[in-house]
Amino acid sequence: MPRPTYTQEQIFQIYDRINLPAKWRLDVEEAKRKSGGDQALEYLTVLKRYTLANVPFENLELHYSRTQVIDIHPEILFQKIVAQGTGRGGYCMENNAFFATVLRTLGFKIMSTGGRVSAAASPNGDVGDHSMWFGFAHMVNIVTIKGIRYMVDIGFGAGGTVRPLPLEDGKIQLNIKPNNSVRLRYDTLEDFENPESKVWIFEKRVADDKFVPNYCFPDNVEFLPADFQVMNMFPSTSKRVFFTQVVVAVKHILSEDGEEIIGDVVLLGNKLHRRVHGKKEELGAFESEEERVEALEKHLGIRLSDMQRYGILGMSSMIG
Protein backbone atom coordinates (compact mmCIF):
# COMPACT_ATOMS: atom_id res chain seq x y z
CA MET A 1 0.00 0.00 0.00
CA PRO A 2 1.44 3.44 -0.94
CA ARG A 3 2.50 5.58 2.01
CA PRO A 4 0.55 8.81 2.59
CA THR A 5 1.86 12.07 1.15
CA TYR A 6 0.87 15.71 1.53
CA THR A 7 -0.72 17.86 -1.15
CA GLN A 8 0.93 20.78 -2.91
CA GLU A 9 -1.15 23.17 -0.78
CA GLN A 10 -0.11 21.40 2.42
CA ILE A 11 3.57 21.55 1.44
CA PHE A 12 3.41 25.32 1.04
CA GLN A 13 1.68 25.58 4.42
CA ILE A 14 4.53 23.53 5.88
CA TYR A 15 7.06 25.90 4.30
CA ASP A 16 5.30 28.75 6.08
CA ARG A 17 5.24 26.81 9.34
CA ILE A 18 9.01 26.25 9.35
CA ASN A 19 9.87 29.71 7.94
CA LEU A 20 11.74 28.12 5.04
CA PRO A 21 13.80 30.59 2.96
CA ALA A 22 12.23 31.51 -0.39
CA LYS A 23 15.06 29.85 -2.34
CA TRP A 24 13.97 26.44 -1.11
CA ARG A 25 10.19 26.80 -1.38
CA LEU A 26 9.95 24.41 -4.32
CA ASP A 27 6.71 23.04 -5.68
CA VAL A 28 6.39 19.28 -5.45
CA GLU A 29 7.43 18.50 -9.02
CA GLU A 30 10.49 20.75 -8.84
CA ALA A 31 11.37 19.28 -5.45
CA LYS A 32 11.25 15.78 -6.87
CA ARG A 33 13.82 16.79 -9.48
CA LYS A 34 15.99 18.55 -6.89
CA SER A 35 15.86 15.73 -4.31
CA GLY A 36 17.85 13.41 -6.53
CA GLY A 37 20.33 15.92 -7.92
CA ASP A 38 23.51 17.70 -6.89
CA GLN A 39 21.70 19.96 -4.40
CA ALA A 40 19.76 17.14 -2.74
CA LEU A 41 21.89 16.99 0.41
CA GLU A 42 21.85 20.77 0.83
CA TYR A 43 18.07 20.80 0.33
CA LEU A 44 17.62 18.04 2.91
CA THR A 45 19.95 19.80 5.36
CA VAL A 46 18.03 23.08 5.08
CA LEU A 47 14.68 21.33 5.53
CA LYS A 48 15.96 19.57 8.65
CA ARG A 49 17.52 22.72 10.12
CA TYR A 50 14.45 24.91 9.73
CA THR A 51 12.12 22.18 10.96
CA LEU A 52 14.22 21.72 14.10
CA ALA A 53 14.25 25.47 14.71
CA ASN A 54 10.48 25.87 14.35
CA VAL A 55 8.80 22.60 15.32
CA PRO A 56 9.45 21.80 18.99
CA PHE A 57 10.04 18.40 20.47
CA GLU A 58 7.35 18.10 23.16
CA ASN A 59 5.12 15.65 25.00
CA LEU A 60 2.39 18.09 26.03
CA GLU A 61 -0.37 15.88 24.60
CA LEU A 62 0.29 13.48 27.49
CA HIS A 63 -0.24 16.20 30.10
CA TYR A 64 -2.22 19.17 28.77
CA SER A 65 -5.04 17.13 27.27
CA ARG A 66 -8.29 15.52 28.35
CA THR A 67 -7.49 12.31 26.45
CA GLN A 68 -3.66 11.92 26.72
CA VAL A 69 -3.73 10.15 23.33
CA ILE A 70 -1.02 10.52 20.70
CA ASP A 71 -2.03 9.77 17.10
CA ILE A 72 0.77 9.50 14.52
CA HIS A 73 -1.36 9.46 11.36
CA PRO A 74 0.13 12.01 8.91
CA GLU A 75 -3.10 13.99 8.58
CA ILE A 76 -3.55 14.22 12.34
CA LEU A 77 0.06 15.39 12.62
CA PHE A 78 -0.45 18.00 9.91
CA GLN A 79 -3.44 19.41 11.77
CA LYS A 80 -1.57 19.50 15.08
CA ILE A 81 1.79 20.82 13.86
CA VAL A 82 0.73 23.05 10.97
CA ALA A 83 -2.95 23.79 10.47
CA GLN A 84 -4.01 24.77 13.98
CA GLY A 85 -1.31 27.44 14.17
CA THR A 86 -0.43 27.09 17.86
CA GLY A 87 3.29 26.33 17.59
CA ARG A 88 2.91 22.68 18.51
CA GLY A 89 5.27 19.83 17.69
CA GLY A 90 5.45 16.36 19.14
CA TYR A 91 7.70 13.66 20.50
CA CYS A 92 9.91 11.35 18.42
CA MET A 93 7.35 9.35 16.48
CA GLU A 94 5.19 12.41 15.85
CA ASN A 95 7.93 14.68 14.54
CA ASN A 96 9.74 11.98 12.59
CA ALA A 97 6.54 10.56 11.08
CA PHE A 98 5.54 14.08 10.04
CA PHE A 99 8.97 14.79 8.53
CA ALA A 100 9.05 11.43 6.76
CA THR A 101 5.79 12.30 5.03
CA VAL A 102 7.18 15.70 4.02
CA LEU A 103 10.34 14.14 2.57
CA ARG A 104 8.39 11.41 0.79
CA THR A 105 6.14 14.03 -0.78
CA LEU A 106 9.19 15.98 -1.99
CA GLY A 107 10.65 12.92 -3.70
CA PHE A 108 13.39 11.84 -1.32
CA LYS A 109 14.24 8.15 -1.16
CA ILE A 110 13.36 7.38 2.44
CA MET A 111 12.76 4.49 4.79
CA SER A 112 11.94 4.52 8.48
CA THR A 113 13.30 2.18 11.10
CA GLY A 114 13.02 1.65 14.84
CA GLY A 115 15.53 2.59 17.50
CA ARG A 116 16.44 1.64 21.04
CA VAL A 117 17.29 4.53 23.38
CA SER A 118 20.12 4.32 25.90
CA ALA A 119 19.69 5.25 29.55
CA ALA A 120 22.48 7.76 28.89
CA ALA A 121 20.14 9.92 26.82
CA SER A 122 18.93 12.44 29.39
CA PRO A 123 15.93 14.52 28.29
CA ASN A 124 17.79 17.74 29.19
CA GLY A 125 20.52 17.03 26.65
CA ASP A 126 23.16 15.90 29.13
CA VAL A 127 24.58 12.38 29.34
CA GLY A 128 24.60 9.90 32.19
CA ASP A 129 24.90 6.18 32.82
CA HIS A 130 24.67 4.10 29.66
CA SER A 131 24.56 0.62 31.15
CA MET A 132 21.02 -0.10 29.96
CA TRP A 133 19.17 -0.11 26.65
CA PHE A 134 15.41 0.27 26.44
CA GLY A 135 13.24 -1.56 23.90
CA PHE A 136 12.23 -0.24 20.49
CA ALA A 137 10.48 3.07 21.20
CA HIS A 138 12.18 5.54 18.86
CA MET A 139 11.76 6.30 15.15
CA VAL A 140 14.65 7.06 12.81
CA ASN A 141 14.45 8.11 9.16
CA ILE A 142 17.09 7.01 6.66
CA VAL A 143 17.41 9.00 3.42
CA THR A 144 19.51 7.76 0.50
CA ILE A 145 21.13 10.34 -1.79
CA LYS A 146 23.35 9.17 -4.65
CA GLY A 147 23.94 5.83 -2.97
CA ILE A 148 24.87 7.30 0.43
CA ARG A 149 22.56 6.71 3.37
CA TYR A 150 21.95 9.48 5.92
CA MET A 151 20.33 9.30 9.34
CA VAL A 152 17.77 12.10 9.53
CA ASP A 153 16.23 12.51 12.98
CA ILE A 154 14.23 15.56 14.07
CA GLY A 155 12.58 13.82 17.03
CA PHE A 156 15.29 13.32 19.66
CA GLY A 157 14.97 16.63 21.45
CA ALA A 158 18.01 18.13 23.18
CA GLY A 159 21.32 16.66 22.10
CA GLY A 160 20.18 15.19 18.79
CA THR A 161 21.80 15.67 15.40
CA VAL A 162 21.24 19.02 13.68
CA ARG A 163 22.13 17.87 10.15
CA PRO A 164 21.90 14.61 8.18
CA LEU A 165 24.49 12.14 9.44
CA PRO A 166 25.99 9.69 6.91
CA LEU A 167 26.00 6.04 7.89
CA GLU A 168 29.79 5.79 8.10
CA ASP A 169 31.36 3.71 10.84
CA GLY A 170 33.33 5.85 13.27
CA LYS A 171 33.35 9.12 11.32
CA ILE A 172 33.29 12.06 13.77
CA GLN A 173 31.31 15.16 12.83
CA LEU A 174 30.92 18.50 14.58
CA ASN A 175 27.28 18.85 15.57
CA ILE A 176 26.97 22.22 17.34
CA LYS A 177 29.88 24.63 17.74
CA PRO A 178 32.23 24.79 19.46
CA ASN A 179 32.72 21.23 20.70
CA ASN A 180 29.56 19.11 20.48
CA SER A 181 30.54 16.16 18.28
CA VAL A 182 28.62 13.10 17.09
CA ARG A 183 29.35 9.86 15.31
CA LEU A 184 27.81 6.55 14.27
CA ARG A 185 29.45 3.24 15.05
CA TYR A 186 28.46 -0.06 13.46
CA ASP A 187 28.99 -2.49 16.30
CA THR A 188 27.43 -5.02 18.62
CA LEU A 189 25.83 -4.20 21.97
CA GLU A 190 27.11 -5.60 25.24
CA ASP A 191 23.62 -6.95 25.89
CA PHE A 192 23.60 -9.03 22.69
CA GLU A 193 24.18 -12.76 23.05
CA ASN A 194 25.24 -13.08 19.42
CA PRO A 195 28.52 -11.18 18.89
CA GLU A 196 27.83 -11.08 15.15
CA SER A 197 24.65 -9.03 15.64
CA LYS A 198 25.45 -5.42 14.84
CA VAL A 199 23.55 -2.15 14.86
CA TRP A 200 24.26 1.51 14.15
CA ILE A 201 24.98 3.26 17.46
CA PHE A 202 24.53 7.03 17.61
CA GLU A 203 27.00 8.58 20.05
CA LYS A 204 27.86 12.11 21.12
CA ARG A 205 30.47 13.86 23.21
CA VAL A 206 31.22 17.35 24.51
CA ALA A 207 34.79 18.70 24.25
CA ASP A 208 37.29 15.95 25.02
CA ASP A 209 34.94 13.77 27.03
CA LYS A 210 34.35 10.21 25.90
CA PHE A 211 31.66 9.37 23.37
CA VAL A 212 28.44 8.17 25.00
CA PRO A 213 25.78 6.12 23.17
CA ASN A 214 22.34 7.70 22.93
CA TYR A 215 20.41 5.30 20.71
CA CYS A 216 20.89 2.52 18.19
CA PHE A 217 19.03 1.17 15.17
CA PRO A 218 19.35 -1.84 12.83
CA ASP A 219 21.03 -1.72 9.46
CA ASN A 220 18.71 -1.68 6.45
CA VAL A 221 15.65 -2.96 8.33
CA GLU A 222 12.48 -1.11 7.39
CA PHE A 223 9.66 -0.71 9.88
CA LEU A 224 6.06 -0.39 8.68
CA PRO A 225 3.52 2.20 9.86
CA ALA A 226 1.82 -0.58 11.83
CA ASP A 227 5.08 -1.19 13.71
CA PHE A 228 5.23 2.42 14.82
CA GLN A 229 1.60 2.32 15.90
CA VAL A 230 2.51 -0.53 18.24
CA MET A 231 5.74 1.16 19.37
CA ASN A 232 3.88 4.41 20.03
CA MET A 233 1.77 2.77 22.71
CA PHE A 234 4.61 2.19 25.18
CA PRO A 235 6.10 5.70 25.52
CA SER A 236 2.65 7.29 25.46
CA THR A 237 0.96 5.02 28.04
CA SER A 238 3.53 3.28 30.25
CA LYS A 239 4.03 4.68 33.74
CA ARG A 240 7.63 3.45 33.56
CA VAL A 241 8.81 6.11 31.10
CA PHE A 242 9.47 9.78 31.78
CA PHE A 243 7.19 10.91 28.92
CA THR A 244 4.08 10.12 30.96
CA GLN A 245 5.51 11.56 34.18
CA VAL A 246 7.33 14.76 33.25
CA VAL A 247 6.48 17.69 30.97
CA VAL A 248 9.24 18.27 28.42
CA ALA A 249 9.61 20.68 25.51
CA VAL A 250 12.69 21.49 23.42
CA LYS A 251 13.20 24.02 20.65
CA HIS A 252 16.42 24.51 18.73
CA ILE A 253 17.92 27.96 18.26
CA LEU A 254 18.83 29.16 14.77
CA SER A 255 21.71 31.55 14.10
CA GLU A 256 20.81 35.04 12.89
CA ASP A 257 21.89 34.22 9.34
CA GLY A 258 19.90 30.98 9.38
CA GLU A 259 22.93 28.91 8.43
CA GLU A 260 23.29 26.77 11.56
CA ILE A 261 21.74 25.56 14.78
CA ILE A 262 23.59 27.14 17.70
CA GLY A 263 21.77 25.65 20.70
CA ASP A 264 18.42 24.91 22.24
CA VAL A 265 15.89 25.91 24.87
CA VAL A 266 14.77 23.11 27.18
CA LEU A 267 11.77 23.02 29.52
CA LEU A 268 11.87 19.98 31.77
CA GLY A 269 9.39 19.61 34.59
CA ASN A 270 9.38 22.92 36.45
CA LYS A 271 12.75 24.17 35.14
CA LEU A 272 13.91 26.01 32.04
CA HIS A 273 17.36 26.45 30.58
CA ARG A 274 19.04 27.64 27.39
CA ARG A 275 22.22 26.24 25.90
CA VAL A 276 23.99 28.29 23.20
CA HIS A 277 27.39 27.35 21.75
CA GLY A 278 27.80 24.87 24.58
CA LYS A 279 27.18 27.34 27.40
CA LYS A 280 24.23 26.48 29.61
CA GLU A 281 22.16 29.24 31.21
CA GLU A 282 19.50 28.49 33.79
CA LEU A 283 16.39 30.56 33.10
CA GLY A 284 14.55 29.76 36.30
CA ALA A 285 12.10 27.40 37.96
CA PHE A 286 8.31 27.58 37.94
CA GLU A 287 6.19 27.65 41.05
CA SER A 288 2.82 27.44 39.31
CA GLU A 289 1.15 26.09 36.20
CA GLU A 290 0.52 29.64 35.07
CA GLU A 291 4.26 30.34 35.04
CA ARG A 292 5.04 27.18 33.06
CA VAL A 293 2.32 27.82 30.48
CA GLU A 294 3.59 31.38 30.04
CA ALA A 295 7.14 30.07 29.56
CA LEU A 296 5.96 27.60 26.91
CA GLU A 297 4.60 30.48 24.88
CA LYS A 298 7.39 32.99 25.54
CA HIS A 299 10.40 30.72 25.06
CA LEU A 300 9.09 27.93 22.82
CA GLY A 301 6.22 29.56 20.95
CA ILE A 302 3.65 27.00 22.13
CA ARG A 303 0.16 28.30 22.87
CA LEU A 304 -2.26 26.15 24.87
CA SER A 305 -6.02 26.63 24.94
CA ASP A 306 -7.92 26.91 28.21
CA MET A 307 -9.23 23.38 27.71
CA GLN A 308 -5.71 22.04 27.23
CA ARG A 309 -4.46 23.87 30.32
CA TYR A 310 -7.22 22.30 32.39
CA GLY A 311 -6.22 18.85 31.14
CA ILE A 312 -3.31 18.63 33.58
CA LEU A 313 -5.46 19.19 36.66
CA GLY A 314 -4.95 16.37 39.15
CA MET A 315 -2.03 14.78 37.31
CA SER A 316 1.27 14.06 39.07
CA SER A 317 3.06 16.25 36.50
CA MET A 318 1.04 19.29 37.54
CA ILE A 319 2.91 22.04 39.38
CA GLY A 320 1.19 22.67 42.69
TrEMBL record:
It comes from the Eukaryota. Belongs to the arylamine N-acetyltransferase family. This is Arylamine N-acetyltransferase. It comes from Zasmidium cellare. The lineage of its organism: Eukaryota, Fungi, Dikarya, Ascomycota, Pezizomycotina.
